[in-house]
Here is the input.
Amino acid sequence: MSLALLYSRAREGIDAPLVDVEVHLANGLPALSIVGLPEKAVQESKDRVRGALVNSRFEFPARRITINLAPADLPKEGGRFDLPIALGVLAASGQIPGETLSQYEFIGELALSGELRQVKGVLPVALAARDAGRALVVPQESAAEAALVSGLDIYPARHLLEICEHLTQGGRIPRYTTPPKSRTPVSGSDLSDVRGQPHAKRALEIAAAGNHSLLMIGPPGTGKSMLASRLPGILPSMTEAEALETAAVLSVSDQGFSAEYWSCRPFRQPHHTASGVALVGGGSNPRPGEISLAHNGVMFLDELPEFDRRVLEVLREPLESGRITISRAARQAEFPARFQLIAAMNPCPCGYLGDNSRNCRCSADKIARYRDRISGPLMDRIDMHIEVPRLPTEMLHRPTEEVVEESATVRERVETARKRQLQRTGRPNSALSSREVENVCVLDDAGRALLHRAMEKLRLSARAYHRILKVARTIADLDDQSEIQVAHLSEAIGYRRLDRQA
Ligand SMILES: Nc1ncnc2c1ncn2[C@@H]1O[C@H](COP(=O)(O)OP(=O)(O)O)[C@@H](O)[C@H]1O
Ligand SMILES: [Mg+2]
Here is the structure.
């Protein structure tokens, strides 16, 4: 046979479209040409494949070798195709049998020695191979990531030779058996570390229960960052599907997937100097940004007014839709981005407005400009605003009789409230459509009158109106009530602090 066909997969967003690797040997001057790869990647791949074959004591065919990676218009990152290309050359030149190749998909980068190197984005490849009903051959280091997908036969290898033996002598590599999926307990910091701030903790619990966005306003050093970092620990545990989605985003990102993050809700805290691309994703073959790395988890924006306003504006669309489409000249990529936004800011540029420990030196004008930086459409999309005031110093240092709840206790209440929501509409309250809000956030006469007065007094927008109803619904769910009561509603209205000052 002088023709071989193998299956591999490219990366496009978090998808892994099929790539046919066709290898053809013809008579003529010895040469190797690869079509369907970008120029630079071609050269590098050629060198690695040639080195790996020679160093594994195979014969590099002295013929005209053409390798076609199809379809041609898919973006292809070089390294991952080394393995199928090398095997294709061996099969086409009769050095290994070609009959069983179509039962497998192959992915892996080769070292010049013939050793296999880990590649990024294996999880989406594993999902797609499973769905196509083929087994997957991967570098050893990638096996654990692939094994997150159930119902897939995985054959890990450290060296090209192991795979050749497997194909020649039939089943030499033992199938990788899925290790038990350990649900890593949420690490480190607990909500009980935070002293006082009962109002802020209550708001955090409501935000967790309904997946609501939250803005904390307060002077420096009052525990805002502490509180935000404890949110993942009180969120409901992830479903298998959520965990897979989140892992798939990490898998194709620059940092790659690591099994210790399996089933942990992400917590991302991009700095305020972060660029738009860092935040939403980008690149010539687009990679996910912070909002996608926070998918099914939390994105914390500390010092919100310091972020570039244009950068914040790009958050508006994913906040509504839960996904982001990145368009590049050549192509588009879509990434999931259902993140929970938590933000923090000082009350004024110096940070001490309303703080009795120090005097604020900001002029009214300066304060207005500071707040203006985030006013408007983004503000409108944040469900809850709270103040996090300074505690009396003795409260931080003195041992107290204060009853502090641990994250696990709060998480139980959150889980129960979230279950009610999922049973009712199939989604957390923050994601209800306007129509669903009308159906499931019904007020009695007293509630309607209260909300009407608040709308007028606080000059609330239609968006804010819906947000109050959703938050009230969540508060009622935490209270295990099927109807929204006036107490629930008035608490929800209390979380529109910034509207009041508009
Ligand atoms: N409510 C609190 N309970 C316990 N420690 C606190 C509290 N508030 C602040 N601290 C201490 O002050 C430090 C700074 O808190 P941080 O959360 O970074 O404040 P902020 O983000 O509001 O500026 C924390 O690391 C912690 O040691
Ligand atoms: Mg902070």
About this structure: The chain is about 40% helix and 15% strand. The pocket of adenosine-5'-diphosphate (ligand 1) is lined by residues 194-197, 218, 220-226, 391, 396 (CB under 6 Å).
